[in-house]
User: Which sequence fits this backbone?
């Protein structure tokens, strides 16, 4: 049986799903750090999740064939976890090529699921870091700027903010660029076989 995940069917819960007082943006509630992070099924993907869950429950063995990287591992493992099937035998199909030969080879050389579980742990660490920075820093900057009269919401992210700063810095360099004359020295060189300009 083959099924698909249509991206992330499972996501981290929102702050207010841990504690109702975390719904309101308030400096007094920061930082928001749940005692244990919990996941939920994405509302708009609940139907597909139920389909996948049913198939996982029926399976004797699970073969993960998502993208061969940590995010693919994360998508599959969270589905398996939320379906209550983590104790089942798991194999890993590992190829990024969709040619017939590569697919046949991938199925002939399935990895034991234990060989790739570290990718799931890496992805969870990244996902939780993104959540912590995003939820806390976005609220902090927004609330502090609102105290100065700026009525907007400011999204801060672990990756998006440094990248935005790099783009900003590059734009400033372009705007402040002033052409300057430069010179190249040329000389006439004499060698055994003659002369040349260099």
Assistant:
């Amino acid at each position: 049986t083959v099924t698909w995940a249509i991206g992330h069917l499972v996501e981290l819960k929102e702050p207010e799903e841990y504690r109702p007082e975390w719904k309101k943006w308030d400096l007094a509630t920061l930082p928001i750090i749940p005692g244990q992070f919990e996941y939920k099924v994405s509302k708009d993907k609940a139907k597909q999740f139920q389909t996948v869950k049913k198939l996982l429950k029926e399976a004797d063995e699970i073969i993960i064939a998502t993208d061969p990287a940590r995010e693919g591992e994360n998508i599959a493992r969270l589905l398996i976890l939320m379906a209550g099937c983590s104790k089942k035998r798991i194999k890993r199909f590992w190829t990024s090529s969709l040619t017939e030969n590569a697919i046949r080879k991938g199925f002939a050389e399935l990895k034991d699921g234990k060989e790739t579980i570290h990718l799931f742990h890496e992805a969870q660490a990244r996902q939780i870091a993104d959540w912590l920075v995003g939820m806390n820093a976005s609220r902090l900057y927004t609330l502090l700027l609102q105290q100065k009269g700026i009525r907007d919401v400011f999204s801060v992210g672990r990756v998006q903010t440094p990248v935005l700063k790099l783009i900003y810095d590059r734009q400033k360099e372009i705007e402040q660029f002033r052409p300057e004359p430069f010179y190249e020295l040329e000389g006439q060189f004499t060698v055994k076989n003659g002369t040349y300009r260099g």
Notes: The CA atoms of residues 101 and 107 lie 10 Å apart. The two ends are 70 Å apart (CA to CA). DSSP finds five helices and seven strands in the chain. Residues 117-147 form the longest helix (31 residues).
